[in-house]
């Protein structure tokens, strides 16, 4: 029988450096200090224990409130999750719609800016992003559909950048859907392991992943070692001809 994973209490999570990120800055100021504190506590609890294993008492206790305090601000635990997931997706989408993207000159510069900013956003908000990406099963069908539309809009921005580069000849004729899926996976997957006190800043990681993204859409001839790799098929063909 598999060993059951230990459940973290709000006291365990307090001050944990792995849960330090910029998530508290995501919440609307109009919600008030208490509601924003509950959302921040919920992010830590959901990211550590999962949505289903987290109780409303956990969330309230983590915010320094009585166990019933959550219901004063949110009618249900699911609405807390929805607020976190919706806001995270909206903010990430907005981050790749800024002026630095619109003013980028050329397909390569635009794609670089997109990947760099999208990666940096997920690094800065890696705890909230972990909840937004991995706890979708806790949403109602209606709320999930709203989030799915936000995800689709983000995907379309990246798809348009790659497809546009292919169309105008800046990129070779790559498989657009496959390349976009790989780029988004790179930028999002870091939320599983990233820490703000690690060796790479969000901006450094964004630049590094942007370089990787451009390699995905570079022509084979321009990649390091392409000339060496290109001679092998010709040699094999010549050998086959002489047999």
Automatic annotation (TrEMBL):
Biased composition (Polar residues): 233-243
Keyword check for DNA-binding: yes
DNA-binding region as annotated in the record: 55-74
Pfam families per the UniProt record, alphabetical: TetR_C_24, TetR_N
Residues in coiled coil: none
Example GO molecular function: DNA-binding transcription factor activity
Record's signal peptide: none
Region Disordered, residue ranges: 1-21, 220-243
Sequence ranges assigned to domain HTH tetR-type in this UniProt record: 32-92
InterPro entries: DNA-bd_HTH_TetR-type_CS, Homeodomain-like_sf, HTH-type_TetR-like_transc_reg, HTH_TetR, KstR2_TetR_C, Tet_transcr_reg_TetR-rel_C_sf
Record key words, sorted: DNA-binding
UniProt cross-references to PANTHER family, sorted A to Z: HTH-TYPE TRANSCRIPTIONAL REGULATOR RUTR (PTHR30055), HTH-TYPE TRANSCRIPTIONAL REPRESSOR BDCR (PTHR30055:SF200)
UniProt protein name: Transcriptional regulator, TetR family
Phylogenetic lineage: Bacteria, Bacillati, Actinomycetota, Actinomycetes, Geodermatophilales
